[in-house]
Amino acid sequence: LRKDPEIDHRTDIYSLGVVLYEMLARRTPFEGETVREVGRQIAETAPRRPSEWTDAPVPGPLEDLAMRCMAKDPADRVQGCKEILLELQSGWER
After folding, report:
1. pTM attached to this predicted model
2. Cα(47)–Cα(61) distance, rounded to whole angstroms?
3. What are the Cα distances from residue 7, in Å, to 1, 13, 31, 68?
4. Buried b vs exposed e over 31-59: b needs ≥16 C-beta within 10 Å?
5. 8 Å CB contact between 61 and 94
6. What is the pLDDT of residues 7-24, one digit of tens each?
Protein backbone atom coordinates (compact mmCIF):
# COMPACT_ATOMS: atom_id res chain seq x y z
CA LEU A 1 0.00 0.00 0.00
CA ARG A 2 2.88 2.36 0.74
CA LYS A 3 5.15 1.28 -2.14
CA ASP A 4 7.86 0.54 0.40
CA PRO A 5 11.17 -0.33 -1.30
CA GLU A 6 11.89 -2.78 1.55
CA ILE A 7 8.97 -5.06 0.61
CA ASP A 8 10.00 -8.70 0.73
CA HIS A 9 8.57 -12.22 0.96
CA ARG A 10 6.77 -11.35 4.19
CA THR A 11 4.08 -9.57 2.17
CA ASP A 12 3.23 -13.01 0.79
CA ILE A 13 3.12 -14.35 4.35
CA TYR A 14 0.62 -11.57 5.14
CA SER A 15 -1.48 -12.58 2.12
CA LEU A 16 -1.46 -16.21 3.21
CA GLY A 17 -2.63 -15.07 6.65
CA VAL A 18 -5.53 -13.20 5.06
CA VAL A 19 -6.61 -16.28 3.09
CA LEU A 20 -6.39 -18.44 6.20
CA TYR A 21 -8.33 -15.79 8.14
CA GLU A 22 -11.09 -15.79 5.50
CA MET A 23 -11.33 -19.58 5.63
CA LEU A 24 -11.69 -19.53 9.41
CA ALA A 25 -13.88 -16.45 9.87
CA ARG A 26 -15.90 -16.87 6.68
CA ARG A 27 -15.35 -13.19 5.95
CA THR A 28 -12.57 -10.78 5.14
CA PRO A 29 -10.55 -9.31 8.01
CA PHE A 30 -11.33 -5.75 6.90
CA GLU A 31 -14.34 -4.20 5.20
CA GLY A 32 -15.13 -0.74 3.96
CA GLU A 33 -16.98 1.29 1.38
CA THR A 34 -13.82 2.39 -0.46
CA VAL A 35 -10.38 0.99 -1.22
CA ARG A 36 -8.89 3.85 0.78
CA GLU A 37 -10.95 2.93 3.84
CA VAL A 38 -9.94 -0.73 3.64
CA GLY A 39 -6.31 0.31 3.10
CA ARG A 40 -6.42 2.49 6.21
CA GLN A 41 -7.78 -0.39 8.25
CA ILE A 42 -5.08 -2.73 6.94
CA ALA A 43 -2.39 -0.23 7.91
CA GLU A 44 -3.77 0.89 11.26
CA THR A 45 -6.26 -1.57 12.75
CA ALA A 46 -5.75 -5.04 14.17
CA PRO A 47 -8.44 -7.40 12.90
CA ARG A 48 -10.70 -9.22 15.31
CA ARG A 49 -9.83 -12.87 15.77
CA PRO A 50 -11.68 -15.20 13.35
CA SER A 51 -13.40 -16.99 16.24
CA GLU A 52 -15.14 -13.71 17.12
CA TRP A 53 -16.99 -13.77 13.79
CA THR A 54 -18.32 -17.30 13.64
CA ASP A 55 -20.12 -19.89 15.73
CA ALA A 56 -18.21 -22.63 13.89
CA PRO A 57 -15.32 -24.20 15.78
CA VAL A 58 -12.03 -22.46 14.98
CA PRO A 59 -8.86 -24.45 15.74
CA GLY A 60 -6.71 -22.35 18.06
CA PRO A 61 -3.40 -23.16 16.34
CA LEU A 62 -4.76 -22.09 12.93
CA GLU A 63 -6.26 -18.93 14.34
CA ASP A 64 -2.98 -18.05 16.05
CA LEU A 65 -1.06 -18.73 12.84
CA ALA A 66 -3.39 -16.53 10.77
CA MET A 67 -3.08 -13.68 13.24
CA ARG A 68 0.72 -13.93 13.37
CA CYS A 69 0.93 -14.00 9.57
CA MET A 70 -1.09 -10.76 9.50
CA ALA A 71 0.98 -8.86 12.07
CA LYS A 72 1.36 -5.20 11.11
CA ASP A 73 5.13 -5.22 11.61
CA PRO A 74 6.77 -7.67 9.18
CA ALA A 75 9.34 -8.53 11.86
CA ASP A 76 6.48 -9.87 14.04
CA ARG A 77 5.13 -12.14 11.29
CA VAL A 78 5.94 -15.75 10.64
CA GLN A 79 9.20 -15.40 8.74
CA GLY A 80 8.93 -18.14 6.13
CA CYS A 81 7.22 -21.23 4.76
CA LYS A 82 9.37 -23.59 6.81
CA GLU A 83 8.07 -21.99 10.02
CA ILE A 84 4.50 -22.27 8.74
CA LEU A 85 4.95 -25.95 7.92
CA LEU A 86 6.44 -26.66 11.34
CA GLU A 87 3.49 -24.95 13.02
CA LEU A 88 0.99 -26.87 10.92
CA GLN A 89 2.69 -30.13 11.91
CA SER A 90 2.56 -29.43 15.65
CA GLY A 91 0.59 -27.66 18.33
CA TRP A 92 -2.70 -29.49 17.84
CA GLU A 93 -3.02 -30.45 21.49
CA ARG A 94 -4.39 -26.97 22.37
Report:
1. 0.86
2. 17
3. 10, 12, 24, 18
4. eeeeeeebeeebeeeebebbeebeeeebe
5. yes
6. 888 999 999 999 999 999
